[in-house]
Write the C-alpha cells for this entry.
Amino acid sequence: MNTLLIPPSYSLIDEIVSRIPRSGKDFSDYLIVFPGKRPSHFLRKALAQREKECLVPPLIFSIDQFVDYVYLKELGYSGRKLETIDSIAILYEIHKKATKPLGGKSFISPDNFFSIGLKIYDAIEELYIEGVESNRMQEMKHIANEALPEQTSGRLQSLWHFYERFYKTIEEQKYTTRSFRYRIVSERINRSNLGRFQKIFIAGFFSLTKSEKAIFKKISIWNNSLFIFQEGTGIEEKLEQAGFKPEKIKNINKKEEDHPGPDYYFYQSPDTHGQVFGLSKIIKNELSKDILSSENNVILVPSPKTLFPLLHQTLAIFNREDFNISMGYPLQRTPIFGFFNNLMNLITSLEEEKFYVPDYLKFILHPYTKNIYFNRRADLTRIIFHAIEKKLTNRRSSSFVTLEEIEEDNVFFEEISKELTKTEAFRNIVFSAGILKEHIKDIHGNIINKFRSFKNINDFALKCIDVLVYITNHSTASQHPLFYPFAEEFIKSLNLIANSLFKEISFNKRASYFNFLKKYILICRAPFAGTPLKGLQVLGFLEIRNLKFDKVFILDANEGILPNVPTEDSLLPYKVRKALGVSTYVDREKISAYYFDTLIKSAREAHVFFVEMNKKEKSRFVQKILWEKQKKEKKADSKTYIQSIRYKVKLNSEDPLPIKKTKEMVAFLKTFFYSASSVDTYLRCPLMFYYRFVLGFDEKKSIKGNIEKVEIGNFVHTLLSVYFQKRTGMKLDIKNINFEEMDQLVNKLFEKNFGEELTGPAFILNIQIKRRMRDFLEKYQSSLIKNNHIIILEIEHKLKAFVNSFNLKGKFDRIEKRNEEILIIDYKTSSSSNALKINFSKLIPDDRATWKASIGSLQLPFYLTLFCAKTGASIEKMNGVFVPLGLAAMDEKIELPLFQAKEEALNYFPVLQGIIFKILNEIINPDIPFQAGLERKKTCSYCSFQSICGT
C-alpha cells in the first residue's frame, strides 16, 4: 500500500524521516512534496539531527515548486511565468477590444480596471486549474440566464469571454501562469520523468484541485511513491473523492502512549490588546519556569492587524534571535505607504502650480520628510519645517501656496537663520539664509517636483523608487524598525510595475497613476524574514500547515477571521461553482477547519484567545471544541471553560503637582498687566493661568482647511468694528443701517482673511455670516434704535489703568450711551449664555469655594472697574452687556446685562470688585502656589495644556 493515514498526534516530518533509510549521506534521490514551503526547513533539520553530520538533503518542494520543476526541468518546457500585474495587463487588452466591455465605460482606464481585473484573473485561474473547458463554460450560460439575476448573468458571460481569449493569448505569446503549468504537468507527467528517484513522498495534502488529482493519480501507481495524509476534520471524505484508500496507522505501532488530545485553555477578551496582554502574562510565567521550549511552540496570528501589538508587547520579552516571524504583512499598512500616500495626496491637490496647504503640511511633517539630514543632523530640518508650519498656519488669506512662495521668502529664511544662531546647540554652526533656502529647495526637488509629471507607468514607478532611495539615504527613516524589509519589498513591487506589461501606458491625469499604485499595493505583502528553525515561532495561518508543536497559542480565534472565507463571489456565484465542480466557500471553510484541527490535535496544550464584544463572537471552530467538551463532560454551560481577560485602563490622571512661586515669578506678576481673560483663566484653573500668562505658552494653531470657531469669532468682531467705526460719535438712526454695505464689507474682509477664491465651507460660511449680520442689523440693532436714543462712544477701545496696586488693561468691543446709561458691550459669537452669567443668589463673597460655581465670567465687572477707574464714571449710570450673536432668535431680548437693576449694581458691583482684587492678590501671594482647578471635569477637557500637566 502506498497511501498512509497517520494520527494527528504524529509528526508528519518524523514520519517521512523514519521512512528514509540510513544509506550514506546523499539523499538527493529522494523527492518530497508538501502543500507549502515551510515544512522543508523542519525536515532538513530532522534529517541532519538523525545523521549528526553533513549530508546532501532530499529534493523538497512545495506543490507549486514541484509543478514548476517538472514543467521546466523534466518536461523541458519554457515560457515566462506571468506576474499577476502582467496577467491583468493582458486582460485589460482583451477588455479594450471587447464589443461589450465589462462594466461598460466604467473600467475603461487601467487604474479603474485593475481591481476587477484581479478578480477576473483569480476566477479564470481557478477555472483553468480545475480543467473547465470552454465548451463547458458555454453550457453554463443557460444556467446563468435562468438561475441568476440579469446583472450577475452578464458578468458571467463577460467572464467566459476573458476565459476563452486569455489562455489563447498567453500561449500565442509564449507566456505561462500557475494554472497553465499545472494543466500541462497534469496531462504530460509520466514515470520516465521521475523514475530515477528512489522514493517520492507526497505528504500533508487535504483538498485537491482537478489538476492536482490528475498529477497524484499518475504518481500513485508508481512503485516508488508514497502518499502520507494526516487525520483531521473531513480528510476521509476528501480521500474518497480523490480515489485514495489509505492504510490507517495506529498509535499502538509507536513507542509513545496514545495521545489523549491537547489540554485546552480558552481566553475571552474585550479587544485585541486584551488578547495580547493575556498572552504576554502566560508567556512570562512560562519563561520564569523555563518551560517554554523554543521552536516547538507557536503563536498563530491569523490577522496581520494583531502582529504589531504582539511584536511590541509579547515579543518584546524575548531577545530578537529567540523568536521567528514568518508571515506576510500588507504593504498598505506600512509607514512607507503612509509616506507615499501623503505625497500623492499633496500632488493631487495641485491647482495651477499651487498646493493645498493642509496637504503640504501633512507631507512635510511626516517623520520621513521632516527628519531629512541637513549638515548630518535631522533636528535642523525639523526646526525649519515647523517654522514653515507656523508661518502657513498663521496665514489664512489663502489655502493654497506655491513652492516658490516658500522657497523665495528671504525674510523668513533670514529670521530662521538668526534664531538658529542664537540657539546654544547651533552656536558654532554658520547658517546663512541662502543655505537654508537651498536645503528646502533640495527636498522639494528630490521629492515633490519629481511627482509633477510622468511619461508613463514605467517612469512613474522608477520615480517612486528614486524618492524612496532618497528618503533611505538622506533621512532617519532607515533607523526606524523594519524599514529595510518594507523598503526592499516596496522596491521589488515598484520594479515589477516598472517592467510590467503596463509599463508603456500613459494617463492624462496624475491621480490615475496614484490610483493604480494604491490598487496594486493592496495585493502586496512584505514577508518577515527570520530563522525558521530557531526560537518561538510566530506564523500566519497558511504557515502552520503540516507542522507539529507542543504548545499552540492562537490569537483572534473569531468568526470572520477563523475561517476567513467570503461567502459570495460576484463573478462565480455558488450555483455556477457547484455546476462546474469548482470549490465553493463551503469547501474553503473545510480546508481551514482541517488545518486548524490538525494543528490543535497535534499539540500538548492549546491556548485559544478570542474577542467577544459587540458584534464579535468566537469562531465556529472554537464553538465546536467547546461543544465537544460539554458533551464529554456533560456540562450545560461552556462558560466554565473560558477565562475572561480583564485589565484596568486607568484613564483618570494624578492631580498635577502645584507650582511654587519663585521670587522672580512674584516680581513679574506684580508688574504684569492683567486682562479680564487672565482673571477668568485663573478663576477656572490657576495652573492654566501659569502656563498661559507666566510661561507664555499658547495653543498650537493648526490648519485643517476648514475655518475654525476662533477665526470666525475674530472675523465677526473685526466686521462689526469696521462697520460701526464710521458711525462713532453720532446718534444712531435707521438710516445708518445699510445691508448692502454690510454684505460688501463681509466680502472684502473674507477676501483679505481667507483668500479670493471661496470654495466649500468658506463659501457657505460667507453666506451664513451675511444672513446673520442682516438679522443682527434688522432684528436687533434696528429695534433698539427705534426705542432708544443711542450714541456709539467708542469701538475696539483700549484702556490701561493702575488700580489698587495692579496694572489692568482691556479692549472694549463697543461703548455706547443708551438714553442716560453708559453700556459696555461685548460680542460673543457662541450661543451659550450660562457660561457668562453670574448667579448672585449662590455667590458667597467670603466663601472662595462658591466663586467658580456661581461666576461664569468676570469680564464685564472687570471692564466696568477699569472704565470707572480711568474715567471717574459712577456705576449708578453704567452697565455691562453681553450680546450672544449665535442665538437662533435675534432681537433686542438677546442681551445679557450684568445687572438687572440699579439697586443690584449698587449692591453687587463692590462685591465683584472685591473678588477681582482678592484674586489678583492671590496671584501675587508667594505662599499660594499655582495648582489645578477644583472642577477638573469641566475645566481640563477644554484646556490646551492637558499634555503638559498630565490631565
Remarks:
- The mean pLDDT is 88.
